[in-house]
């Protein structure tokens, strides 16, 4: 089996309106038009590119991966990404799968003694690797099931499990295995990420979030930076600005109110940081978003 078959399958089954499929946690996509860098959240996913190249920026890291390579995101991080050099004749094609910690934990418990290395320091939350032939083979068989509704309910969970096994034993296994370890460094950072996302508009002391995560301040800083490529304060700022953008799309004339709602006391600071993040002042960006929505 080959990437060419995977390309054909993805192009056949990809829908223009959504990447979701009838298979639980399985996504396929065909991107036919180049778009500017788009801020979004990464999700906790595995994504394999069959055709094309994608560039992602998270914190101070930039990752680029292309055909035959895959991305693992072990934390839902604010990212900016774009597909490069796509066209209607040569779309970017890919398959992805949501990573469920419970399924990974089950695999780790069933692994033979010595089959997996011991847990180490927290690995980055976004990593890229070349896909093995076995991983591509499993991805092909998974996407094939989109055309086999009788077999899919029984076989898809087995193929998803096979993909997870290739991931936990592969080059980026440390990142994936962390998801299944309740007491891993990633688990501690994920607790902090979840708390900051829920309380993004509130000021906080790093030592308090470190204590919530069960870590010393120094260990928390190291682990958070290693996983997210950002400091906790930078992470909070990214979440605030993305939430502000969503609010401004509906309330383009209330820049000051939106800034206050997401936690900014100073309108000038809000406008300055918003422009640095999205390339335009809040009011202008809001008008652009509404115009784009009207066209779509």
Quick synopsis:
This protein is an alpha+beta fold and 296 residues long. It contains twelve helices and nine strands.
Question: Describe it for me?
Answer:
- The chain is an alpha+beta fold and 296 residues long.
- The chain folds into three domains: 3-180, Regulatory protein AraC (Jelly Rolls), CATH 2.60.120.280; 185-230; 245-295, no CATH class.
- Helix content is 48%, strand content 18%.
- The protein is built from twelve helices and nine strands.
- The strands form two sheets. A five-stranded antiparallel β-sheet has the order 1-8-3-6-9. Strands 2-7-4-5 form a four-stranded antiparallel β-sheet.
- α2 (101-110) packs across α4, α2 packs across α5 and α3 runs antiparallel to α4.
- The chain is globular, with a radius of gyration of 20 Å.
The spatial strand order of the largest sheet comes to: 1-8-3-6-9
Tell me the CATH superfamily of the largest domain: Regulatory protein AraC
Please indicate the percent range of residues in DSSP E strands (runs of 2 or more): 15-25%
The CATH topology of the largest domain is given as Jelly Rolls
- Please indicate the count of domains: 3
Main beta sheet, described?
A: 5 strands, antiparallel
- The top-level CATH class of the largest domain is Mainly Beta
